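cache lookup: miss for this entity combination. No prior model stored, computing from scratch. Input as submitted by user K.M.:
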Amino acid sequence: MRDSTSIGIVTPQSAIFNTSLHLKSGAVLDSYELVYETYGELNATKSNAVLVCHALSGNHHVAGSYADDTKSVGWWDNIIGPGKPIDTSRFFVIGVNNLGGCHGSTGPTSINGNTGKPYGADFPVVTVEDWVETQVRLADHLGINCFAAVMGGSLGGMQAMRWSIDFPERVKHALVIASAAKLTAQNIAFNDVARQAIITDQDFHGGDYYSHDAIPRRGLRLARMLGHITYLSDDSMAAKFGRELRNGTYSFGFDVEFEIESYLRYQGDKFADQFDANSYLLMTKVLDYFDPAHEHNGDLTAAFHGATADFLVVSFTSDWRFSPERSRSIIKALLDNELNVSYAEITSSHGHDSFLMEDHHYHKIVRAYMDNIVT
Amino acid sequence: MATNVVTTPTSLSRPDFAAIAAWVKPGTKVLDLGCGDGSLLRYLQDVRNIRGYGVEIDDANVLRCLGNGVNVIQSDLESGLSSFESGSFDYVILSQTLQAMKHTEGIVREMLRVSCEGIVSFPNFGYWRNRLQVSFGHMPISEALPYQWFDTPNTHLCTLNDFEVFCHQHGVRVLERRVMNGDHQVTLFPNLLGMLAFYRFEQQK
């Protein structure tokens, strides 16, 4: 067993792109900035680069921590680092904050050059295709012609799939974890309730809350609480909270009584402090629109016709938001195209969030796959 | 996950691999059901340059397959092969797993749906040492049947004769048969002297 440690102190970087970006919606961004982090060294042949795509609320800070805040550990630090399954002593790993995000890349909180004010609700709706296009430009900027792997969980896995479809010559392996080829109606429904919570918050001001010196906190908090419920499983909630009461007895009122209420409110508050509501709206739309089969009359096999990458697809048994069944439909399409593909269905009780957890077998699967990637 | 189909742990020896490889044309597409640690697929990739996929339910084996650099789909064979398109393979192999399947008829039907030809191997229950142990009043335990009656995953053991009757009754045409005893091929009284049976078959046209 190799020793595995954290990558240690990391520093974000940024790149400004002045070539206009034509978005799928028809909107055009004249210029934009992407914030990213890199871990490990790019080899001489530039063949060891791995792009890690983030999910709904993620960002470029994937691994390591910041010098001024050692508690700021990256969201996937348990799988990326020296000696870890995504081994930064072999791979050059890139994390990027996607366009429309709120952690430094151009998004709704950025100043619109044309108005001198934050974009707010005027920031165009983006799609996974648009994100991949911006990531391609970042790859060009870093001199990376072809990724050893593009990977991600959930919405991140959708980006990996899109890469393999849109830029087959630029990705050798795609790791699609706890993802789906499109959202179900139920998934879109959850997203819309989250959006409605934000949009109907009096402090939303049509998305222009910045100029009103307000934040639609209640809406964002509700959106996150709802989302969080769907990322956990019934069993994991039962195991962690059960019907535990904070004060041991019923108070016959509407204040926090059950531990689960306390937990969800805490998660909601924490999220509302650090995430922008307009970005959250955008991210949920990115999820809703993702459907590579759409332009092929619903035929996912046809959508993957041009793909050449090798795939690792992983799902988790208790993930009801992106269930194993959803992954199996991806597998079917990849098999139909005679692509190299492996699929692992991990037994886990943590629901959709399993992909972020440190599970022994899951990490071994990813490690075994990554170890066979020739750079 | 539903029922567990456990692949017989006595991994096939090289002569057994060779027996299967002899039937597999180079450059073809092969599906190995209950592929274990993937070593048969690895072998076929190396000596026959096949495009291979394995189906396996066991976590540890799925991990070993990835280590062996073969494609593996974690799935329960008992629930069918719905991920695989009809006629999408040249060969489907069911090596040392047929006898542990709950739905024997179902899996043979599925094999011939997704592939032109099927290849199975199984321990011959009619092997004389097995018969001898039964005649002395005990369930057989041997190299090919290494279990006690109470912990065996084998639910559908058969003899060569039984399998051939099954094929006949189910519209399955046997193309080739190979019977082995250790490293040796058995030609004389195969249902008595053969320990392991290999069949290559197709759907009767």
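stored under new cache key. The two ends of chain B are 36 Å apart (CA to CA).
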